[in-house]
Amino acid sequence: MNFDKNTFLHIGDWVKGKLMNGELMIGFVEDLDVLEEQVTVTVAVSDIDQLAGQTIRLPLRAVEPASTTQTKDRGQLLFLIDLALATGDKEWFDELSAELNNLKNPQLK
User: Which Gene3D superfamilies is this protein grouped with (predicted)?
Assistant: First the structure.
């Protein structure tokens, strides 16, 4: 079995990965099947526009955790806020909005 880097994934975690023909996608974990080394992901954005909002099953090795600790600039935050709205993730939206406000008004920290 070759899924060590992904065994710490949990339902609800954001992941990024590659599809069969190398297309990229970002989504969140709906289900994990460690025995079959499969993950079910709801796609938020993808190189294949039609996949947005769809739930797909991928090999566990095809995904990795999406980094959430990197410093984001204004453009990245605005994109992620749109993504949070599209996926209905209010908690993430609130968190990103606070980060954006801190960029605009660093003295309010």
Answer: Virus Scaffolding Protein, Chain A
One domain for residues 8 and 52: yes
Exposed / middle / buried, residue 44 (Cβ in 10 Å: 0-12, 13-18, 19+): buried
Task: State the residue range of the domain holding 52.
Answer: 4-65
Per-residue pLDDT of the chain (109 residues; tens, 9 = 90+): 344 454 578 888 889 999 988 899 998 899 999 899 999 999 988 888 898 889 999 999 999 988 765 667 788 888 888 888 887 889 989 988 998 898 877 665 5
Residues 60 and 78 both lie in one domain: no
CATH label of the domain that carries residue 47: 2.30.30.140
